[in-house]
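Course assignment 3, question 2. Fill in each field.
Student: A.L.
Task: Predict the tertiary structure for the chain below.
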Amino acid sequence: MVTFQVSTSELLVNTEQKGLQSLIDFTGIFSRMGNCAKFNGLDRFLSQPISDAYCYLASKIGSVSLTRESKYKLVVAVRKDLEMGKGKIAVQVGHAIITASEETKRLHPDWWRRWFDEGQCKVAVKVAGESALTKLNQDARELGLPSAIIHDSGLTQILPGTATCVGIGPAPVELVDKITGKLPLL
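Answer field:
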């Protein structure tokens, strides 16, 4: 099995299988969402996205797991009762990420910077309906967490003003998990 240990400056790859140990230098690249990595030890340059590098290693080694300790995260809770299409959900989640992120940047710039520098951990979860969405937003505000409910403009699948999702954070993981930790993944 391969374990990736990620920081903003490096991705360390270790495996007991095939005796491979390699340091992938992501200095200034990983934290800026770049897409070029040098694999020392494999003596190969990749110009594919980081996920392709991950898949490449998986294909060469076999079983791969990604482990990473995030201290900050942003969670987006999406209403499942609206039965939005996949594309609509993707766009609504995008709105929530941007809006909640900007709110955090304004209210807690230190949280935002740490979240950004460690790779912008994001998690999508689902809730049953609007009342659950409203409760999450209220609980977040009571804990002092930035949050943003997204209301659709009504141009495609749902009525104007419909609350579709809520973004919470980015904020310390232990605080966000108090509110969203038991919700099922989207």
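Instructor remarks: Residues 1-49, 58-67 have pLDDT under 50 and may be disordered. The helical segments are 50-61, 86-107, 109-117, 130-142, 173-180.
Grade: pending
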